[in-house]
Specification:
Elements lengths: L1 E7 L8 E3 L2 E4 L5 E3 L5 E2 L11 E4 L5 E5 L5 E6 L2 E7 L12 E6 L2 E6 L8 E4 L24 E2 L5 E4 L2 E2 L3 E2 L2 E4 H6 L2 H4 L2 E2 L7 E7 L4 E8 L5 E8 L4 E7 L7 E3 L4 E4 L5 E4 L5 E4 L20 E4 L4 E6 L2 E7 L4
Antiparallel strand pairs: 1-29, 2-3, 3-4, 4-5, 6-7, 7-8, 8-9, 10-11, 11-12, 13-14, 14-17, 15-16, 17-18, 19-20, 20-21, 21-22, 23-24, 24-25, 25-26, 27-28, 28-29
């Protein structure tokens, strides 16, 4: 089951990233929200129009960016390394594509700095481009977004969209794509989700992906499933009968869905085991812009989720006793 704890603060967190047992707000100038209700660091407002942040797994590098804009800043231990940008084309419509990856012992960012449909990889420290655009063929007409990388740094997910619009999922083998950059322009499709909108996709493990799907037909279908890359198929998939949004994978049996409010869903039956209807967890159903976004941070190692609600942080911790 999920245990809930509500923590009140004097100010509102603008972004959340776990740092040990604390929560860092990089949009709010790097201040720290302790779980005892105290705040460390400066308390004045947001930097520029930034409203989101991601961090490398070694906690050295951070990108602070505008989720539905073109501007970002790359930080090292809180100090500016350089500014980054993405293509302006429809940037106000869908989420900024950005992720950290590790190549041997060095970190890089995966993003779309020049064209909305061309993925590039840059060394974090030097800014040197690792990909080679000049030799690449015509890229597919995808709006890349919501990049996710597995723990082994072997696979990259893109859950963006294509025009009309339709939400998609694409899978990249990072080693192969870094050796042959054309593979970034023509990724592997997951055949079982063709002609179905993908609401969200998150890695549970290096092999397993939790995916939420929407099929718009005479009888709309809302499904959540567990997909194996190695087996190239869903090993579980259930119809839940309600709109799904951003997912937080817990294990092979449970996932938290965050559309409007947190719900703990049984991946074997589709049954909702717990609801927290008084917690606002946003209404995002894809990479395309929604009107209710809230700060979120999941601590995978400790299976706990932090949700910013005004001057409160709602802490949901999963215990395997369901």
């Amino acid at each position: 089951m999920i245990l809930r704890r509500t923590i009140e603060y004097k100010i509102t967190p603008l972004s959340l990233i776990w740092k040990g047992n604390d929560l860092k707000d990089w949009v709010g100038n790097g201040r720290v929200f302790n779980l005892n209700g105290e705040i460390e660091g400066v308390s004045h407002g947001r930097q520029y129009k930034f409203d989101a942040a991601i961090q490398s797994d070694n906690e050295v590098y951070t990108v602070v960016y505008e989720k539905f804009g073109t501007k970002g800043v790359l930080l090292k231990n809180g100090e500016v390394l350089r500014e980054i940008n993405r293509s302006y084309y429809l940037a106000d419509v869908y989420e900024y594509p950005i992720a950290f990856i590790k190549i041997e012992e060095e970190y890089a960012i995966v993003h779309c700095p020049d064209e909305y449909n061309i993925i590039e990889v840059d060394n974090v420290e030097t800014g040197v481009r690792i990909t080679n655009t000049s030799n690449r063929k015509e890229p597919a007409d995808y709006f890349h977004s919501r990049f996710r990388v597995n723990d082994a740094n072997t696979k990259l997910l893109n859950t963006g969209w294509v025009w009309h619009p339709m939400d998609i999922i694409e899978l990249f083998d990072l080693k192969m794509s870094l050796n042959d950059n054309d593979l970034f322009d023509n990724p592997t499709s997951i055949a079982e989700v063709n002609m179905v909108d993908v609401c969200s996709a998150e890695f549970l493990s290096n092999d397993l992906i939790v995916i939420s799907l929407f099929k718009n037909s005479k009888k709309p279908k809302h499904e959540v499933g567990l997909f194996s890359i190695e087996m190239d198929k869903f090993i579980k998939k259930v119809d839940v009968g309600f709109q799904l949004g951003t997912l937080v994978p817990i294990d092979e049996n449970y996932v938290i869905d965050l559309y409007e409010h947190p719900k703990l869903i049984d991946l074997n039956t589709g049954e909702v085991k717990q609801r927290f209807e008084d917690i606002n967890s946003g209404n995002q159903t894809s990479s395309i812009k929604s009107d209710n976004l809230v700060p979120l941070a999941f601590d995978k190692g400790n299976q706990r989720l932090a949700i910013g609600n005004g001057n409160k942080i709602e802490l949901l911790e999963f215990e395997k006793t369901v």
